[in-house]
Amino acid sequence: MSKEGYDHTAVERRWQEAWADASAYRTPDDVDDPTYVLGMYPYPSGKLHMGHVRNYTITDAYARFRRMRGDDVLHPMGWDAFGLPAENAAKERDTDPRDWTLDCIDTMKGQMRSMGFGYDWDREITTCSPEYYEWNQWLFRRFAEEGLAERRDAEVNWCPDCETVLADEQVEGDDELCWRCDHPVEQRELEQWFLLITEYADELVDAIDDLDGWPDSVRQMQRNWIGRQYGTTLAFEITGPDTADADADHGTVEAFTTRADTVFGATFFALAPDHPISEALIERDEAVREFVRHEADPDGDEPNGVATDLTATNPVTGEELPVFVADFVLSDVGTGALMGVPGHDDRDHVFATKMGVPIEPVIAPEPDGYDPETDGPPAAPDVSESAFTDDGVLVDSGAYSGMRSAEAREAITDDTADAELTTQYRLRDWGISRQRYWGTPIPAVHCHDDCGTVLVPEADLPVELPEFINTTGNPLDEAEEWKATTCPECGGPATRETDTMDTFVDSSWYFLRYVSPELESAPFDPDRADDWMPVDQYVGGIEHAVMHLLYSRFVTKFLADAEGLDAREPFTNLLAQGMVQLEGEKMSKSKGNVVSPQRIVDEYGADTARLFMMQAAQPERDFDWSEEGVRSTYRFLTRLKRLVEEATTDRGGDSTADADGRTVNPDDPIHDYVASEIDAAVAIATVEYDDLTFNVALREAQELVGTLRSYVEHATPDPEVFDRGLSVAIRLLAPVTPHLAEELYAELNGEAGDDSGAPLVVDTDWPSADVDREAARLRRRLVENTREDVRQIVDVAGIEDPSGIDIVIAPDWKYDALEIAIDSDADNLIGELMGRDHIREQGDAAASYGQDLQAEREALTATLPGDAEFDALRAAAWLVEREFDAPVAVKRADEADDDVVRKAEPGRPAIEIRE
Ligand SMILES: [Zn+2]
Ligand SMILES: [Zn+2]
After folding, report:
1. For the residues of 197-252, what is the DSSP string, one character each?
2. Which of the four pLDDT bands, split at 50, 70 and 90, describes residue 178?
3. Which of 58, 319, 366, 457 has minimal CB crowding within 10 Å?
4. Which residues are in the CB-under-5-Å shell of ion ligand 2?
5. Backbone angles phi and psi of 152, in degrees to 5
6. pTM for the whole thing?
7. Which pLDDT score, from 0 to 100, does residue 168 have?
8. Nearest bound ligand to CA 183?
9. First-to-last C-alpha distance (Å) of the chain
């Protein structure tokens, strides 16, 4: 520990205990609609990392701010405790995933306490406990009952050597090798469970428009993920070479296009490598086999393909098109087949150029003033170098030539046999089966007789995990005793389902469990959920933009429909926090560039770590960890502590004199200046905390501390002003540096070392101010600009040693004129101004100022009223006095010479400097 600092360990421990004794973060069940602040719960990997610390400091600071603002707050924490890493760690260490996970939770919980995070630990949830995962199983049953859970074939990773299914994470490297034995992994079809999220695709995409508390980037990622497209399905007849081969006729293949208007420009047809026709071709066509087995690369930068001897008949033109097998056609998107229009699609253009397929223009840009009724079709564009991909007017398209793209799409769809308007989605159903141990058992059994797959009845839930077996494959497959069960339908022998659920099921509704974590009869208390949900502020990493955040929205909508939950969206406001980096790089264990939060807490304390992080950048931005920044933050807190100590020990009995016998000069305007700076800090910091721009709020708090320090140095402070300043500064810092804030607040209130009965900062009211943020900013800008003007005049005039400085406020009529000019929409502003007697009376001065206003009209902005400007400058005069070592007089217009007053304007006083 630094000798320069304070005993942060003792301070932090003292207040952590005081909060626990006072149950300061408990949210009683009977509170009305609390502000629900939530950080994404962590995977218990062993230790908190800097990303966690940042995430949870953001939610903690916001929760504390809302609490001090008078809200009831719900701020819970739990553990995303299932998952493969625990299973792997258990295998490596020859232990049990449960023991390993609970150990990790224990460690991380201790670290969270040492960070001072104010959670309601009575609401803690752990997803690997049967009390929690029972409700995953219940949820699964509810999906099945509503027809939204389905079992169907899907591909899984299979290691032929280990004879086991592998999770995607167990398949390693570009060569896709088994993580255990390095054998190449194969694909196998196996029956898997799916939740039918696609049934909610439309609502999930439409409702994104209303999520205005979410970052645009996340909303766009969800839209793209769902990938809704409106278009047309066209049926192409596929035929092979005229041989004796029985499968020369492959029948019709449907292809989806959003651009049916370009169908006359189709010059090829393409099939996915795993399309049934492609698979049939592999059997008899060497080139296709070679391509599919060895060359096709759907993730490659360039589209690749191979010609076949098939042709496809364009259903609109009757033209015969060559058929390719191409790797950019994906079987799980649309129909696994597409018509290629290289003149009007970039990727098709690249492919056609490479394969020597003709490129034909059939859409032209719409000419200005184009009228499809009277004008002929425009000239076709040159598409030989690149595709024209916008909508336009059809050319060389038979009867449709001259039509606009949108109308043509409709007409072509209407006129063509078997063509249909279709909505297509990129979103697939949610495959939740995982062939691993450490997850929620899927509550199903397979009857040995004729009942097939049967769900475990609700009364028999939870289906608990058996003891862990350390094996190469899925431990559940080898838990013979556990697997053998009876069929709930016929009572005959049956085998349990050995797949467990994707852990994203656990996290898709955990925010509801915090509402009633102990409830044994249901996953959540419906009345309380209706009152407390949705989460008001959710905070987590951008890596969850799609899966977790989309599944949570899906499950919430499902529960709204199936269980009558009021909320249809889980999270009203979302903040995706940026990364904590080191020298511009993501911290990672493998790169060895990790800063341990524990070390920072030991050396400098949690408050320093929290404050450094929150002031370093806006929460959404990445920022670089800096040891120097940490040290300087620590020095700031240490100085603040001394300032409070000095203030509280120096205090004499006489409130007008300090301990050194210096008396307060009540006429010194510096007191007003400091008082208005205190108000400004409150006004600005409050709005910034509300917007979660903590860095700006904290700058206010820190500058206020600087102002208070100057105050002591420059004058004998008015104790009332000074104490309020300290109290405000402490409370503005309290959400981010809660321990030291408690310590200093107690000291300031004369209760140092005795926290029994003293008010805790967490329960204290947020400070209030007499000004709003805008007025505070105007006042500051006025003071800053005036100081800058004085500097410039001194500089330009070469005044070495000014003997006096006058600052002269504009006359009242100019403030009136400015206000009129801002509000007015009259063409003749001068006329309008001269209609006012008190302005017209000013004669030439009024005319001249009126012209200035007219000239600047677009750029005019409001200023403070004249009286407020006078007060602000008078209070700030000591700053100018100190800087130039000369007496400063702030004057009203009627106290100054006319030729000086003439130069004064609202927001810009006249300045006169005497040598
Ligand atoms: Zn293997
Ligand atoms: Zn049965």
Report:
1. GGGGHHHHHHGGGG-TTS-HHHHHHHHHHH--EEEEEEEEEEE--SSS-GGGEEEE
2. confident
3. 457
4. 447, 449, 451, 487, 489-490
5. -155, 170
6. 0.88
7. 73
8. 1
9. 54
